[in-house]
C-alpha cells in the first residue's frame, strides 16, 4: 500500500510539468493506481475484520468449554438438593435457593454465549460466581443448624443472585 501511495504522490508531482496529452495519460495511470490502492485498502480492512472475528470465535469456544465445566457444580448441587427435598431430608424452603442455582447452572451450561466480548466476559463471571454459590449452598446443607448455617445461606443467596444478575446482563 505504501508503494502505491508513493507512486501516486510522484505522479501527482510530475503533472504540472507535463504537456496536455501527456497529462491526460498520466491522469489515467494515476486513476488506475488510485483504484488499486482503494481496492487494496478495502481488502486489508476485510482481512483485519476476519482476523478479529476469528480471534473472538476462538476465545468464545474456549470460554464456552470452561463455562460448561464450571456449570457442573451448580447443576449438581441444585439436583442433589432437589433430590434431598423430594425424599424429605430437607424442607421445601431450600427450594428458594436450589431452584435459582439449578436454573443459573443450566443457563450457564447450555445457553449460547453471546457474540460480543462483553457478553462472553459476563458469562464467564457468572460461571465463576456459580461455583462459590454452590459451595456455600453445599456447606450450608452440611453444617448443623446455627449461626454458621445462616451466614452460609446468606453468602449462597448473594452469590446466586450475583450469578443471575450477570446472566440477565448478558442477555441485554
From TrEMBL:
Name recorded for this polypeptide: Uncharacterized protein
Organism: Amycolatopsis sulphurea
Transmembrane segments: 67-87, 93-114, 126-144, 150-168
Highest classification ranks of the organism: Bacteria, Bacillati, Actinomycetota, Actinomycetes, Pseudonocardiales
UniProt keyword terms in alphabetical order: Membrane, Transmembrane, Transmembrane helix
Amino acid at each position: 500500500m505504501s508503494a502505491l501511495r508513493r507512486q501516486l504522490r510522484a505522479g501527482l508531482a510530475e503533472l504540472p510539468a507535463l504537456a496536455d496529452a501527456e497529462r491526460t495519460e498520466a491522469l489515467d495511470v494515476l486513476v488506475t493506481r488510485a483504484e488499486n490502492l482503494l481496492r487494496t485498502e478495502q481488502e486489508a480492512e476485510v482481512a483485519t475484520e476476519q482476523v478479529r472475528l476469528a480471534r473472538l470465535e476462538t476465545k468464545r469456544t474456549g470460554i464456552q468449554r470452561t463455562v460448561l465445566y464450571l456449570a457442573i457444580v451448580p447443576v449438581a448441587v441444585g439436583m442433589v438438593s432437589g433430590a434431598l427435598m423430594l425424599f424429605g431430608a430437607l424442607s421445601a424452603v431450600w427450594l428458594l435457593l436450589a431452584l435459582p442455582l439449578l436454573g443459573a447452572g443450566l443457563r450457564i451450561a447450555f445457553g449460547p454465549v453471546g457474540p460480543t466480548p462483553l457478553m462472553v466476559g459476563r458469562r464467564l463471571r457468572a460461571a465463576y460466581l456459580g461455583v462459590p454459590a454452590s459451595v456455600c449452598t453445599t456447606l450450608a446443607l452440611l453444617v448443623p443448624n446455627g449461626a454458621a448455617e445462616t451466614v452460609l445461606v446468606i453468602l449462597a443467596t448473594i452469590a446466586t443472585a450475583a450469578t443471575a444478575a450477570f446472566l440477565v446482563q448478558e442477555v441485554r
